[in-house]
Recover the amino acids of this structure.
């Protein structure tokens, strides 16, 4: 009797549809604590839900475009966009192939990101640790942080011209403030007891900063780096408005002037995919180097 029931359950599980298995998995999840809608912060694996969401969005996009509900001028179909990406790799657009446009933009983004990290992280640590440094740099960072990059773009051009240095400087300034502020917040979150214990065991100031404060601030530093790279991609389009000949942002802007919508969407998708891939890399590094995050 038991074997028959077990075989029946096994057969039913094999014959169930993916949707049924997905709903069954949701029903088996633990209920949230009383009075809480979200349950334990960060608990549960949402990857399957994310995949289903993306598939649904692409399906709706395909339906409305293939059915002719929206004109291709306003929204081309996903198939047309994918075909256009292939053409961009081979034939290019605006005098350069897609590979050349991507190389130019990635060089500007990650060059600026590297400069922002090697200056912003030490500066954030210094601001969090030293009141003199905080008094000098904190007002400057807080003043220009809310300013949109387009506001000081003319000033950057006046100071640095229209060559590559002005583009890197504009993106660098957009990335610097979130890294500095996140690093300073991480320094402030380090427990004073940890610092006192380190000093009582004979550690000097450099050892406390490098081994206790920096390690304790690492989760916030990585979060600031993730935020900064998003700001960098946002600023890239503005930076490539200035006498650029190559770049994904330049390609999107040029295509929009001639109403080449499939190239515009292709550029947006490429930027999003690259940014998402970098964010996944940062999450992997966060899990590897700060496994204690959220477990204290």
């Amino acid at each position: 009797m038991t074997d028959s029931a077990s075989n029946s359950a096994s057969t039913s599980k094999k014959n169930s549809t993916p949707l049924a298995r997905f709903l069954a998995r949701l029903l088996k999840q633990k209920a949230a604590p009383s009075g809480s809608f979200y349950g334990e912060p960060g608990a549960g694996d949402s990857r399957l839900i994310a995949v289903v969401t993306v598939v649904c969005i692409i399906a709706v996009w395909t339906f409305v475009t293939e059915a002719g509900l929206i004109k291709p001028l306003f929204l081309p179909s996903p198939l047309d966009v994918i075909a256009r990406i292939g053409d961009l790799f081979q034939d290019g657009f605006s005098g350069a192939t897609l590979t050349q446009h991507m190389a130019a933009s990635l060089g500007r983004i990650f060059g600026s990101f590297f400069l922002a990290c090697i200056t912003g992280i030490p500066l954030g640590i210094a601001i969090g640790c030293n009141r003199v440094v905080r008094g000098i740099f904190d007002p400057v960072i807080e003043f220009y942080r809310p300013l949109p990059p387009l506001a000081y773009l003319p000033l950057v051009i006046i100071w640095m011209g229209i060559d590559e240095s002005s583009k890197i400087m504009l993106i660098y300034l957009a990335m610097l403030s979130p890294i500095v502020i996140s690093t300073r917040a991480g320094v402030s979150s380090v427990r004073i007891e940890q610092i006192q214990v380190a000093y009582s065991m004979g550690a000097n100031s450099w050892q406390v900063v490098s081994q206790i404060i920096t390690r304790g601030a690492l989760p916030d530093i990585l979060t600031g780096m993730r935020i900064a790279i998003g700001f960098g991609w946002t600023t890239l389009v503005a930076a490539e408005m200035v006498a650029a000949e190559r770049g994904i942002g330049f390609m999107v802007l040029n295509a929009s002037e001639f109403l080449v919508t499939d190239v515009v969407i292709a550029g947006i998708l490429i930027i999003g995919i690259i940014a998402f891939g970098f964010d996944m890399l940062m999450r992997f590094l966060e899990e590897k180097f700060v496994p204690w995050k959220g477990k204290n």
User: Anything to note?
Assistant: Residues 8-14, 30-37 have pLDDT under 50 and may be disordered.
